[in-house]
Design goal:
Layout lengths: L6 E7 L6 H9 L6 E8 L5 H6 L6 E5 L4 H11 L4 E5 L3 E3 L3 H7 L7 E9 L6 H13 L15 E3 L6 E5 L2 H4 L11 H11 L3 E12 L5 H22 L8 H15 L3 H21 L4 H33 L5
Parallel strand pairs: 1-2, 1-4, 2-3, 6-9
Antiparallel strand pairs: 4-8, 5-9, 6-8, 7-9
Length: 327
C-alpha cells in the first residue's frame, strides 16, 4: 500500500493573533496526514509570536523582520521537506478535507503542478467582512481570486490565489519562486511563469478555506487599491494578459458610449433603464437576499474608484519595478 505523501503547509503571518489559533486548529484537524506546518512570523507586533511559541515542536517557525508575504513563502518553501507544498493565510480556516481535496486534482495528471480551491466566508466573520465576501463573489471583481460559480468537477484554470493552493514541490526547482518585492499579485505572476513553462493548474471547489475579510470600509478600499496597483505593475511588466486588466479601457468606452447616447435622451433613458434592470437582476441572483444585493451595489463605486486609482499607480511604478524583477 502506497504511503500518503508528506505535505508542507507554508503560512506567512503578520499580526494575525485574532485568527491564528483557529487557522492552526483547522490544520491539525486535517484528515490527510502527514503534514508539516511552517509559519513565517514576519515582523508581528501583536501576540502572534507568543501564540506560535505555545505550539512548541508541533510547528516550525521562521522569524523575519518584515520581508513581506512573497519572500516569506520563498523562505518557507526552502525549509519544506514535503513532496507537496500548500499555502494558506493566517486569517483562513481550512475544512478538514482541504488537503485531501487539493491532492485529488493531481490524480492521473503528471503535468499538473498546482491545484487551488474555493473561498467561503467564515460564520464568525464581522458583519462588514461578510459584505466584502458577498461583494467579491457577486461581482467576481478580482477575476480568478474568487469564482462566482462553484464547479462540481475539477477544472483547469490559469491562476489560483495563495490563500488556497497546493503545488508539487519540484515546480519551485523548475520555476523560480515568487517575486520577493511584489505583493499582492505575486501569485498571479508566479502562475503565469508556471503555465508558460508548460505546466497545468487545476481548481477543485471542494477544497474549501473560510477566509476572513476586511472589517471596515477603509480596509476594504485599501485592499481594492492594492489589487489594482498589482495589476498595473504586471501590465507594465508583461502587457495585459488577464481580462480584469482591460477594465479601465472598458470603463472609458462605457462612459464614452453613455455620453454619446445622452445626446438622444429617449435612447439614453431606455438603454439606461435596461442596463440598471439587468444589472440589478444579475446582482440579486448572485447574492443571498435583497439587502445584501443593495449593500454590494453601494460598495461598487468605491471599489471601482480605488481599483482604478491603484491600477494607474501600478502602471507608473512598473517601469522602475521591471529592473527589480528578481526572486
Amino acid at each position: 500500500m502506497t504511503e500518503p505523501p508528506l505535505v508542507s503547509v507554508v503560512i506567512p503571518v503578520h499580526n494575525e493573533g485574532r485568527t491564528l489559533c483557529a487557522c492552526l486548529a483547522s490544520l491539525f484537524a486535517q484528515d490527510h496526514q502527514p503534514i508539516e506546518l511552517i509559519l513565517i512570523n514576519d515582523g508581528s507586533t501583536d501576540d502572534t509570536a507568543a501564540i506560535l511559541a505555545s505550539y512548541g515542536e508541533r510547528i516550525q517557525v521562521l522569524t523575519t523582520p518584515g520581508v513581506g508575504p512573497s519572500q516569506g513563502r520563498n523562505l518557507g518553501v526552502a525549509r519544506a521537506t514535503g513532496e507537496y507544498v500548500a499555502f494558506t493565510d493566517g486569517d483562513c480556516v481550512c475544512d478538514p478535507g482541504w488537503i485531501r481535496e487539493l491532492l485529488r486534482g493531481f490524480d492521473g495528471h503528471p503535468e499538473v503542478v498546482g491545484v487551488g480551491g474555493s473561498q467561503h466566508t467564515p460564520p464568525d466573520d464581522s458583519p462588514y467582512g461578510k459584505q466584502v465576501g458577498a461583494f467579491l463573489r457577486a461581482f467576481g471583481f478580482a477575476s480568478e481570486y474568487i469564482r462566482a460559480g462553484e464547479q462540481k468537477d475539477i477544472v483547469e484554470v490559469k491562476h489560483n490565489p495563495t490563500c488556497n493552493v497546493l503545488y508539487r514541490r519540484m515546480v519551485f526547482d523548475r520555476v523560480a519562486g515568487f517575486l520577493k518585492w511584489l505583493w499582492p499579485g505575486e501569485d498571479v505572476e508566479f502562475d503565469r511563469r508556471v503555465r508558460r513553462s508548460g505546466f497545468r493548474l487545476m481548481y477543485n471547489a471542494g477544497a474549501i478555506v473560510h477566509h476572513h475579510r476586511p472589517d471596515t470600509p477603509a480596509k476594504f478600499r485599501r485592499m481594492m487599491r492594492r489589487y489594482g496597483e498589482a495589476q498595473g505593475i504586471l501590465v507594465r511588466m508583461y502587457g495585459p494578459f488577464r481580462t480584469i486588466q482591460f477594465m479601465p479601457v472598458a470603463l472609458v468606452a462605457g462612459l464614452t458610449l453613455a455620453g454619446t447616447m445622452a445626446l438622444v435622451p429617449p435612447l439614453f433613458l431606455a438603454v439606461g433603464l435596461l442596463a440598471v434592470a439587468g444589472g440589478a437582476l444579475l446582482l440579486r441572483r448572485r447574492t443571498p437576499d435583497t439587502r445584501t444585493a443593495l449593500a454590494c451595489a453601494a460598495m461598487l463605486g468605491p471599489a471601482l474608484w480605488e481599483w482604478n486609482r491603484g491600477y494607474l499607480m501600478g502602471l507608473r511604478q512598473g517601469a522602475g519595478q521591471r529592473s527589480r524583477a528578481t526572486v
